[in-house]
Design a protein that fits this description.
Layout (H helix, E strand, L loop, with lengths): L1 E2 L2 E18 L3 E9 L2 E6 L2 H12 L8 E11 L5 E9 L36 E6 L2 H5 L2 H14 L6 E6 L10 E5 L3 E4 L6 H8 L2 H4 L1
Bound molecules: FE2/S2 (inorganic) cluster (FES).
Length: about 210
């Protein structure tokens, strides 16, 4: 099949997932795949981004995992450059089904609150709290949650250790607002501003962070 000034064909590549090239600090724009013939950077279309972010959050996709990616290879007739665009990503088989824009993977389970404080967020390693900033979460108080988290962290002197990061949709819009505490990936859905002090105390107790 050809388009004007472009030749489009299908590709099917298997290799090791090396991570994402991010856009705006959180959106996976390109997927890095290491294969026997070298490393490829494959464009991740919008339809796949949410699922891939979620797969990464739930440890279903980690650097080093073997994955298979299929999609379109678009070659420019003018300069010969080739652009790869994914339309389907097959995750490691011990995890869930392939991700494609038409697939409907079942929602991951709500993770319990971590009983383990993030003592690893010491001087060297910065922890973060991801706050969905997309419409459903924003409408249901996501912005206020982000502000309250920031204020609480500042108040406890943790502002330089724990970062608030706004993200795209986490694919759990009905449970908005959604927050994920990193690095232990604990998810909170339907969070209320009043619960913020308890959340911070649980994950980032000041005694463990000093
Ligand atoms: S809008 Fe926040 S999870 Fe979809």
């Amino acid at each position: 099949m050809s388009k004007s000034h472009k030749i489009v064909s299908e590709f099917n590549l298997a290799g090791q997932f090396f991570g994402f090239i991010l856009k705006d600090g959180y959106q996976p724009k390109m997927l890095r795949l290491n294969t026997n013939s070298g490393e490829y950077w494959i464009k991740v279309p919008k339809e796949l981004r949410g699922d891939l972010v979620r797969a990464e959050l739930y440890n279903q996709l980690k650097p080093g995992d073997r994955i298979q990616v299929t999609g379109e290879s678009i070659r420019s007739v003018k300069d010969g450059t080739i652009k790869l665009v994914a339309d389907r990503v097959q995750l490691p088989t011990n995890h869930f089904s392939p991700i494609s824009p038409t697939s409907q993977p079942s929602a991951p389970p709500t993770m319990p609150c971590s009983p383990t404080p993030n003592a690893s967020c010491g001087q060297q390693k910065k922890c973060s709290i991801l706050v969905c900033s997309k419409s459903d979460c924003r409408k249901r108080g996501g912005e206020e949650i982000a502000i309250a988290l920031e204020e609480q962290l500042q108040e406890l002197g943790l502002g330089d250790r724990v970062q608030i990061k706004k993200t795209g949709c986490m694919s759990r819009c009905k449970q908005a607002p959604n927050v994920v505490v990193m690095p232990d990936k604990t998810r909170y859905s339907g969070l209320d501003v009043a619960e913020i002090p308890e959340l911070i105390e649980k994950h980032f107790p000041v005694t463990a962070m000093t």
